[in-house]
Amino acid sequence: MISETPRIGFIGLGQMGLPIAGRLMDGAVAMAVHTRTRAGAGPLLDRGASWADGPAGIASASDIVFTMLGYPEDVEAIYLGPDGLLAHARPGQIFLDLTTSSPDLAGRIAAVGAQRGVAILDAPVSGGVPGARAGMLSVMVGGDVAAFDAMRGLLSRIGSTIARFGGPGAGQQAKICNQIVIAGTMMGVCEGLSVAARAGLDMACVLDTLGGGAAGGFLLKHMGPRIVAGDYVADFYVRHFVKDLGLALAEADKLGMDLPATALARGLYRRLAAQGAEGLGTQALARLYQPAEGEKA
């Protein structure tokens, strides 16, 4: 049973994890944290969070644990490793993985959790760093209904759209759909703006006009001006998007589906990463359409 004033644990205080954990702390909860370096937890430690040396410490100090990690192999190690969360879990705890990861892995983790009396929710998010800071993320959840209902209050601190899609792994499947749509849309935004620039059109006018019509949408509105300005600072890293598109293609293969646009997008992002851009934002795809050195624009 989770108390009315639960102790929260958080593992993974990177670009997304830090603002998400900060919003959870805004609810005046007691929080234990762990991330790759203690310095990375500094802003939360300064606010009163306590440091744990690893997953075992987080599990023992917490009633509810959130994780926001980079890759499925990180998730597997943190949850299923010999010194991971589930090795030190106790009945009645709830663990929520916010990482974009494998649906199959989410199912495996949930099964091990059930054996130990621990509810596991896969709860990947969308909205990027701005959404994390504002508490306006979209949260896609898979797992036990009762655990989901119990976590709604906490999830509402980080998200404005929260939905459960089914059992373990369903949240990850929904997030895969999200990434597929983003991939195709980002290709269209980058190609459209690149053609406009090469044609010598007024780019401010292009953004305003396209945004007012059927082409308007989140990516054009938020990333379009940054693409035009050559601002490729990451809200979401190219390297993580390559991972996500790989997960999408693997899930599609499992479902017997062919996703040619998603395959093309992964190929383009792999090429971009190979050019040294893996630490840039996904809008850096526009770099592939820029004139080569010495080529007339």
UniProtKB/TrEMBL annotation:
Spans through the membrane: none
Pfam families, sorted: NAD_binding_11 (PF14833), NAD_binding_2 (PF03446)
Domain 3-hydroxyisobutyrate dehydrogenase-like NAD-binding: 169-289
Catalytic-site annotation from UniProt: 175
Record-level Gene Ontology MF annotations: NAD binding; NADP binding; oxidoreductase activity
SUPFAM superfamilies with a match to the protein in the record: 6-phosphogluconate dehydrogenase C-terminal domain-like (SSF48179), NAD(P)-binding Rossmann-fold domains (SSF51735)
The entry's keywords: NAD, Oxidoreductase
InterPro entries per the UniProt record, alphabetical: 6-PGluconate_DH-like_C_sf (IPR008927), 6PGD_dom2 (IPR013328), 6PGDH_NADP-bd (IPR006115), HIBADH-like_NADP-bd (IPR029154), HIBADH-related (IPR015815), NAD(P)-bd_dom_sf (IPR036291)
Domain 6-phosphogluconate dehydrogenase NADP-binding: from-to ranges: 7-163
UniProt name for this protein: NAD(P)-dependent oxidoreductase
UniProt organism field: Gluconacetobacter azotocaptans
